[in-house]
Amino acid sequence: MKQRYNVHTxxxxxxILTLSTYVVGESGQEGIYIVTFLLLTAMVKxxxxxxxxxxxxxxxxxxxxxxxxxxxxxxxxxxxxYIVSI
Length: 86
Fold this sequence. Notes:
Layout: H1 7-27, H2 32-53, H3 61-85
Helix pairs in contact: 1-2, 2-3
């Protein structure tokens, strides 16, 4: 099986995403665009963790639905909660 990228590339991307969320958090900005950016970043990082670090890229479809579904439901719940609280 051919890999499109190695685990070091994924790790570096996760570090960059983590640092970007830290910078945004420390900047003190707020609003729907910031929350959207943070949630999308969390979804990308969660997807990378599920796919590469938990090594679930080659499992059955039901496990992918469960894991990515859980990630999506949590992020959507956070987004809805934020929008309702505005």
